[in-house]
Design brief:
This protein has about 130 residues and is mainly alpha-helical. Helices cover about 60% and strands about 0% of the residues. The protein is built from 5 helices and no strands.
Length: about 130
């Protein structure tokens, strides 16, 4: 899923007045967190970046987000939770946040199952 696809999907299902730049900033926050807490703790592929490069809200927004299908649903739930939080709609935020947390946990569990942690490699070399 691309940055633009995530935003269009979220906006279609939950119309809102937040700007494109705000939504890109929210996606940057999430993917920076995923990169730091999940990707960097595992052995990286040779073509993977060493650091997260933020998405440019003034660009084409065709960059691929980190979490692949079917785990990319977490981006929609994340954007919905940020919309609800910033609208101070706490009951809606609680629901969208719970959906996001579940999707994030499923993604992290999949990533941990399919990628070798860095500490495991270090233990083997000793």
């Amino acid at each position: 899923m691309t940055v633009n696809e995530a935003i269009v999907q979220a906006d279609t299902l939950k119309p809102n007045m937040f700007t494109l730049k705000e939504k890109v900033r929210w996606l940057n926050q999430l993917d920076a967190l995923i990169f730091q807490d999940v990707v960097k703790t595992h052995v990286r592929e040779p073509d993977q970046a060493e650091e997260f490069v933020p998405y440019d809200p003034d660009g084409l927004l065709d960059e691929t987000l980190i979490a692949p299908h079917p785990y990319d649903v977490l981006y929609r739930h994340w954007l919905h939770s940020q919309i609800d939080l910033n609208n101070a709609e706490m009951s809606k935020y609680n629901v969208s946040s719970a959906l996001y947390n579940q999707a994030y946990a499923e993604y992290v569990a999949w990533y941990n199952r399919t990628h070798m942690p860095i500490s495991h490699i270090r233990a083997i070399k000793i």
